[in-house]
Amino acid sequence: MNLRAKLLIFFIVGGLAPVLLVGLLFYRNSLKVVEGMLREEVKAEAARVARDVEVGLREREADLTALAQAGAVRDYARGLAAQPTTTTGNASPASSEPAARATEALQNTVADFVSHNRDYYSAVTPVSASQAGGAPVRVEPYGASSPSPRVKMGDSLPGQLRLDERVWTASEPKPLRSDVMLDANGTPCIVYTVPVFSPEGERSPRAALVAELKLDALLQEAVRDPNAATSPAGVSARAGEVAAQPARLLLVLDRTGKIIHHTIHALKYQPAGVAMPYFDAFASAMRAGQSGTNFYTVPADGTRWLASYKPIAGSNLSVAAAGNYTRAVAGLKRDGLASLAVALLVAGAAMLFAFVVVTRATRRITRVTEAAAAIGAGDLNQRIEVQTHDETHALAEGFNRMSDRLRELIAREAETRQFQSFVRLSAMLTHDLKNAITGLSMLVTNMERQFHRAEFREDAVSSLRQATEKLGALVARLSEPVKSLSGEYRRTPQPADLVPVIRRVLAANADPRAEFYDIQTELPDTLIAPIDAERIERVLENLIVNAFEAMGGRGGRLTVAAGEESDKLIYFSVEDTGAGMTEDFMRTRLFRAFATTKKRGIGLGLYTCREIVESHGGRLEVKSKLGSGTRFRVVLPSIPLMASHARSAEKSPLAKSAAKTGAAS
Asked: What domain range is 563 assigned to?
């Protein structure tokens, strides 16, 4: 993944995503705040209206109680008490002049009361206990243009007088309140029946006042709704579909579920289940006198409302206040989405700007990277050109200075490597010469003692011939050092019997020392493996000579063994009883070039042995204990060498050194 892709992911995850998340959280919290505020508002509005209606009812009841205790009304009751009760039910106290004056005073008092409260009462009717079936006086207010009320004399219409019969058993002048009902004009009202007692303080009332309180006026005064929709336009009274819903709604239901008051006037006096079917759950709770707050949705336009409902104490009414939640959050949604869009736009612009800047910087870095790769591949003539003066310019200049310095160092390194290659080759040839001279020295020493034996002279001549051939080969390798090093590890192994090679090396290096050392062998008859016999012979010769040098002149036991490791591996080992080596030396220095524990030697024998063994695809193992001796064990494959092993041989340090030396030459 390149830098631009990472930057894009960073901006999305670290920039746009947090902005979007914060915006959504802010919007969600804002919705909760709006809902909480709206909930408190509708609860407060419902409680206020219920309280105001309750206060209005108590005020009206107090006014009616005061009217029942007025002097003219009580005098009328006194006259009724003095008049004997007739059985016809149609007797009137107006037969005498005092009674007539009392009746006139009653009419004036009631008319004056109705005149001052024309907005609240549709009628006030005095009723005597002996005339419960009819009424001589019914006072009704005229319209606003007529200051005087209308006084109707005679019997009431059937069912027009809604007298509460409990009034005749009342013991105190307390109004009796009815449920909501319809008056003569078909509008909702509450009928109060107030007992009237005579001044003498009789225990049973002689008369009563029947007052029809107009509920609309009382509710309108309590509601004070500035959002009332007075026009029925856009309203379907049956389905409750409103074209333009107000921000607030307030409605009053009676216990039958009829809408007594509604902000939208067209829905008044209808059953809630018909006019507002979506409000049915609330209407059921209101009819049961319950309180609560919850949401409802108007299906016609999908608006969501939050409603709070509460019963009006002392009546069969319940009030509900509802707030248009959809309208309340509409502005918030619009502003929130606009703010979020602006934030995302700003973040996107910043991301685009940064993306362009980073893209240009990435291109410059790419040019520097490509040039650096070319320099790493060996093209030291690369020059990195960057026009800007930012960090990439300093980086490019640094690479240019580095390439110039590398050219100088490589030129010097080539000279140094040529000299080191020659020194390494000389050290290797010196090591081989030392081994050859050691063998010749042992042969000369034995010739002084065994030359008289014919078989010894024959073996000596053969040994001299082999030593002469080795010395000739060494001289040839010294004459052509580059060819010797470059071809050292590129020979192709051929299947050969390893046992004759081991016996030949023992005869040349171990048999002359047989009288001083205990020589033991554990060899099979044959041991076939794909090897380069000459190089494996050098490995075995190095290991045997090192074993004798490790044991020194004090003697010891040399054990040479060979055999099959498995069906795919063979081995040969050389074990001595010499001084041994420490763990630290074996771990850090044993197979390193020019590392040795001997007082004389250059330390290339084991290094060369391991390189030869590994070029065959095998491994060289060592086990040693200080003071107990050492065993070297060579494990080789018994199948033809794989191509991968051949390639690894070509990549060995000496092969590389030879190739570099050849290139430098």
From this structure: 493-640
